[in-house]
Specification:
Elements (H helix, E strand, L loop, with lengths): L5 E7 L3 H14 L4 E7 L4 H6 L6 E3 L2 E3 L3 E3 L4 H11 L4 E6 L11 H10 L4 E8 L18 E4 L7 E4 H7 L12 H12 L3 E10 L27 H6 L5 H4 L8
Parallel strand pairs: 1-2, 1-6, 2-3, 7-10
Antiparallel strand pairs: 4-5, 6-9, 7-9, 8-10
Length: 255
């Protein structure tokens, strides 16, 4: 049975414009009841205050070095913290650069139902409008099931079974910036327990990056693709996907 309230955990580090838009879409396009917890690594103070009415809790890890200052502990630490706080049967992990679609019923109701109907799945994420380094799904292929099994799924409003993730031991307890390491860790652990992981074929989220953000997902120049666990060439690649309006339809499909 789908829980009445679903925990949503969002990591935030820099990129306040994206955080603002992500929270605005979450506000406007989510009718299912949720509890929103922000794990804030810095750079979004004003935006989080602006949206404080939909945020239940903001956690800002810090080090004492004369004063409290936010510190980026990495995605593994963020999700282990989320796991320790989750209380709903299903919970969501996501980043601050994911824009949810405008759907009826809303995306969270539909996503929760997909997991509720598939006991064999431990995690399901929304389909980002473009995959980097992985093959996407053809939205024109009507033969695809609503959830396509994959070897891993990322934190794109990824819904997970709390009991399964606890049984799997959560994420590693260390900072590892390598690309896809977070997805590989939790998905392989769930699969070792016999669960499947997958991606929705017909519910797509927009993952903004491209020319408008300098080809760097909105991060400042000093936070290079290498520091994010990407190859330098990736920055040039992502500028090809830079039109959120073209995807801002009922199912986020290209015009």
């Amino acid at each position: 049975m789908i829980p009445e309230t679903i925990d949503i955990f969002m990591t935030c580090y820099l990129r306040p414009e994206m955080t603002d838009q992500s929270l605005q879409y979450l506000r406007e396009r989510t009718k299912h009841k949720f509890r929103l917890v922000i794990i804030h690594y810095g750079g979004n103070e004003e935006v989080l205050e602006k949206h404080s009415d939909i945020i239940d809790l903001v956690i800002t890890p810090s080090r004492r070095n004369g004063k409290d200052s936010p510190v980026n502990l990495g995605i593994h630490s963020a999700w282990n913290l989320a796991l320790s706080m989750a209380v709903s049967k299903y919970f969501i992990t996501t980043d601050n650069d994911i824009y949810v679609p405008d759907l009826e019923p809303d995306w969270l109701t539909q996503l929760s139902a997909l997991l509720d109907q598939r006991e064999e799945f431990g995690a399901i994420s929304l389909h980002p409008h473009v995959f980097i380094g992985a093959a996407g799904l053809d939205h024109k292929d009507t033969s695809l099931p609503d959830v396509v099994e994959r070897n891993m799924c990322g934190a794109v409003m990824r819904i997970m079974r709390l009991d399964a993730v606890i049984k799997a031991g959560g994420w590693e307890h260390k900072l590892d910036p390598r690309r896809n390491h977070e997805e590989r860790t939790i998905c392989s652990r769930l699969q070792s327990l016999g669960y499947k992981v997958g991606i929705t074929s017909r519910i797509r989220a927009y993952h903004p990056f491209g020319k408008k953000t300098g080809g760097n997902w909105g991060y400042p120049e000093w936070f290079t693709p290498q520091l994010q666990g990407h190859t330098p060439e990736l920055k040039d690649y992502v500028v090809n996907f830079d039109n959120p309006d073209a995807y801002d339809q009922k199912t986020w499909l290209p015009l």
